[in-house]
Amino acid sequence: MTILPAADLSAPASTGRRLVHRHALATRITHWINALCVTVLLMSGLQIFLAHPALYWGQSGADSDRPAFEIGAETIGDGGQRGFVRLGSATLDTTGALGLVPNADGDLTVRAFPRWATIPGWRSLTLGRRWHFFFAWLFVANLAAYYLFGLINGHLRRDLAPTREQLRPRAILADIVDHLRLKFPKGEAARRYNPLQKLAYVGVVAGLLPVMILTGLTMSPGMDALLPWLVDLFGGRQSARTIHFIAATLLLLFVLVHLAMVLLAGPINGVRAMITGKLAISEDDDHEPHSAPQP
Amino acid sequence: MSRILLPNPKLIGRRKFLGLSAAGLGATLLGGCDRLSEAPKFQEFLDSAEGLTYRMQRLFGGGRTLAREFTAANLSPDFKINGTHAPDTPEYAALQETDFANWRLRVDGLVVRPLDLSLADLRAMPQRTQITRHDCVEGWSAIGKWQGATLSDILKRAGLQPAARFAVFHCADFYERASDGTGQYYESIDLIDAFHPQTILAHRLNDEALSVGHGAPLRLRVERQLGYKQAKYVMRIELTDRLDQLGRGKGGFWPDRGYEWYAGI
Question: Which listed CATH number (3.90.420.10, 3.40.50.2300, 3.40.1350.10, 3.40.1190.10) goes with B69-257?
Fold first, then answer.
């Protein structure tokens, strides 16, 4: 790892701060392409979902079948309408947010998701699909490049794989406490990921993202003919569609937590590190945030 | 040594600034996506993915892979009717009146022997029965049992001229009557799908004669593609070497309206 002298700092005010090399070029490039792809895929995916905002389990499922999950609008007693989200037999009134949402003029209209959440903003299954499939290709190519570089330069093994020490219940518990107290690693400790961070990243890189790709492929009738095991793996095309939606929701949750953590841990330093590769750490803060035993 | 961070007006100002910048950037990006969506050049750029998907699925799947066939236990209790529910032309009404006794399937274009086939002719040909999943572009699926002659048998009987590249299905229904004169339903497939063993012209669904809602008397089943390719009310099969002179030039009613011509995804 390259350690740069403090003289390279743009803001050398605080003594003992130095820039260290944090992220490889391949990591930075694939991170930002991935951020773009995931954003477009989530939003164009919601656009596609507008066409049939119901989820089923099994091989098939359509209007006459009972959905496991549904977003819709229904007429209520006084002749008005309400938006709802239904999971099994539980129904939640979501008027204004989901199911019945404001249109461009601010009037309530029957639509699963609001305009700001979809690409394009207006209803267009055709354009939603075109955005989705273009960025799906880019996303897959970028993820493949990430795996390749990660294996070659050791990023996956060195930075992402949790150490045996980090996987001890005590270490994980201590890290949970640190996160709850919003205590973030400083100094040398900031140069590597903490246990929860590693688990979250591994869960996304090796879990959620591949599941998104495989369940997406399972919805393609052409791919089902080519790779019939995909249909069996997820228990049917409609189950795959449901899992695609669940995994997308978990991915959105990850993005929100990830952004919150960046903001709390120091957004300028964090974002700069993911752009230039250099992270500023303070030597006077050079200690572990908690008293976990050192390896 | 520890430092205590006190709330600092400069810092709050910066946070507010960052927050506003992020919101502004987000709005610009969203507006940008909408503006891009409207730009024909950008749409063409996005369209390049369709060619890639088609070539990859043809490269790895080609004519060999089969769509899954299910058992009677998997049949959907109610097979949803979508698109046209009943063609509204007097010609179709007349055919329906005689239970399609006067209906003929015309096979022409780049063929050696143009054909006119009655329902009895099609029933007399070797039949294929398949229980398959119908996937609508909207996202739902229904499983049905289809029966009919294979398109490959029909095309072999007609004989293809060497220049033929696509089979076009002209239908009886007008899904819309657009001011440019288009709106009659049609679809087209390449010869790989045309000669695929599961590509049939079905006259029966779930052991009954095809209902009007499902495309009586004859509909296409091209099982490795989405629902809008499964043309209903087929009147004529035209073999052709190009698609740009039909409808709005994209090879099908829905492809003319922005959907992918290759609907394997």
Answer: 3.90.420.10
Interface test with B, best of A40, A60, A233 (most B CBs within 10 A): A60
- B66 touching A, CB under 8 A? yes
SS3 of residue A234 by DSSP: helix
Q: Classify residue A218 as exposed, middle or buried by CB count within 10 Å of its CB (0-12, 13-18, 19+).
A: buried
Is A126 part of the contact surface with chain B (CB cutoff 8 Å)?
Answer: yes
The position carrying tokens 């080519």 is: A226
Q: What integer pLDDT is reported at residue A291 of this predicted model? A: 44
- Interface-testing mutation among B4, B140, B199, with chain A (most A C-beta atoms within 10 A): B140
Residues of A within 8 A of B260 (CB-CB) are 129-130
Q: How is residue B257 written in tokens?
A: 């309206």
Q: Chain B, 185-224: which have a CB under 8 Å from a chain A CB? A: 223-224
Nearest Cα residue to B223 out of B260, B252, B194: B194
Q: Is A204 helix (H, G, I), strand (E, B) or coil?
A: helix
Whether A124 contacts chain B with CB within 8 A = yes
Q: What is the pLDDT of residues A54-92, one digit of tens each?
A: 999 999 999 989 999 999 999 988 888 999 999 999 999
d(CA B265, CA B55): 12
Among A15, A113, A130, which would you mutate to test the B interface (most chain B Cβ atoms within 10 Å of its Cβ)? A130
B260 and chain A: CB distance < 8 Å anywhere? yes
User: CA–CA separation, B253 vs B173, rounded Å?
Assistant: 11
Cα separation of B186 and B111, whole Å? 19
Write down the CATH number for the domain with range A6-24+153-285.
1.20.950.20
Q: What's the angle, vertex CA B31, arms to CA B27 and CA B35, rounded to 5?
A: 165
**Domain residue limits, chain A:** 6-24+153-285, 54-111
Write out the H or E segment, with its range, that includes residue B107.
strand B105-109
Q: Does A40 touch chain B (CB under 8 A)?
A: yes
Residues 6 or more apart whose CB falls under 8 angstroms from that of A254 comprise: A200, A203, A204, A208
Q: What are the boundaries of each domain within chain B?
A: 11-60, 69-257
Nearest chain B residue (CA) to A127? B37
pLDDT at B12: 53
Compute the C-alpha angle B57/B63/B69, nearest 5°: 90
Q: How many CB pairs under 8 A join A and B?
A: 143
- Which residue from A minimizes the CA distance to B54? A222
> B21 at the A interface (CB within 8 A)?
no
Distance, in angstroms, between B46 CA and closest chain A CA? Answer: 6
Q: What's the pLDDT tens digit per position in A133-177?
A: 999 999 999 999 999 999 999 999 999 999 999 999 999 999 999
- What average pLDDT does range B31-38 have in this prediction? 89
Closest CA to B229 of B183, B177, B167: B167
Entry pTM: 0.89
Return the H-helix or E-strand segment holding B190. strand B184-190
